[in-house]
Amino acid sequence: MRRGLPRAALTALLGLAALTVWWPLWFLLFGALTPADELAATIGPALGQGAGQARWQLLPSWPTLQPLAGLLLDTPQFFAMFWNSCIQVFPQLAGQLCFGAPAAWALSRLRFRGRRGLMGLYILLMLLPFQVTMVPNYLVLDGLGLMDTHWALILPGCFSAFAVFVMARGFDAVPRPLLEAAAIDGAGPVRTFWRIGLPLGAPGILSALVLGFLEGWNAIEQPMTFLKDPARWPLALYLASADGADLAAAMAASLLMLAPAVLIFRFGQPYLELGIQASGLKE
C-alpha cells in the first residue's frame, strides 16, 4: 500500500505535466475546427475583440473545416510565405551538412595546434544570442549587398556554430582504434571521414539537422531584421502580417505552421536520442 501511493502520486504528477504540454496543441486543433463567430464569442473578449466574458470550450459546438479550407484555398499569401520558409530553411540544412560536418570532424578527430582554443571559440559563438551578433551580421550582409534577400538568412544559417558543436559530439563516439585500423589500411583523412565518420556519426549529424530545422523554421528576429520586403517573409511572420480579426484563420495558420515541425521532430526523435547517448560515451 505504501509503495502504491507514491507511484500513484508520481503518475498523477506526470499526467498533469503531460496535460500542460498538450493543452496548447489541443487549443490550436479545436480552435482551427471552431466557426469564426463562436471563436470570437468565446475567446475574442480575452483578445480585446469582443464584449462580454471570455471562456473556452473543450470541444466546438459545431465543428467545421471552414477556417482550414479558407486558409488553404483562399489565402495565397500563406502559400507564398510557406515557400519562402522552405527556400530559406532547407538550404541552411544543406550548408550545415556540407560545411558543418567536415568542420565538426576536424574538431573531433584531428589533432592540431590551437584545437582546444578553436573549440572554445565555437562554444562562445554558440552561446551568444542573436541580439549580440545582429549588428556584425547586418554590417557584413549590407557590405555584400545581400540585405533583403533570401541569402541574408541562408548564409548565417549555413555556418551555424551550434550545428558544428552537436555534430562534433556525435563524432566523438567513433572508436579511435577503428580510425587507426583505417589509417593502417591506407585510408586518408578524406576517405576515413567519408567511409567511417559519416556513417557512424549519422546520429549526431541528423540531430543537428533536426534542431537546425526547428530553429530556422521558427525564426522570427532574423527575418524581421534582414528582410524588409514582406514578399520575402517566411511563414513565422504570417500572423504578424495577417488580419488579427479573424481568429479562426489565425488558429488554422498556427496549426499548419506547427505541422512540419512536429513531423520533422517525430522523424528525428530516435536520432536525437542516439545523438544524446553518443555524446555521453567515452573511449
UniProtKB/TrEMBL annotation:
Ranges that cross the membrane: 81-107, 119-139, 151-171, 192-214, 247-267
Family statement: Belongs to the binding-protein-dependent transport system permease family.
Record-annotated ABC transmembrane type-1 domain positions: 82-268
High-level lineage: Bacteria, Bacillati, Bacillota, Clostridia, Eubacteriales
Chief localization: membrane
GO BP annotations, alphabetical order: transmembrane transport
Location in the cell: Cell membrane
Keywords noted in UniProt: Cell membrane, Membrane, Transmembrane, Transmembrane helix, Transport
Organism in which the protein naturally occurs: Candidatus Gemmiger avistercoris
GO cellular component term, pick one: plasma membrane
Pfam families: BPD_transp_1 (PF00528)
Keyword set includes RNA-binding: no
CDD domains per record: TM_PBP2 (cd06261)
SUPFAM superfamilies: MetI-like
This protein's name: Carbohydrate ABC transporter permease
InterPro entries in UniProt: MetI-like, MetI-like_sf
Topology of this chain in the membrane: Multi-pass membrane protein
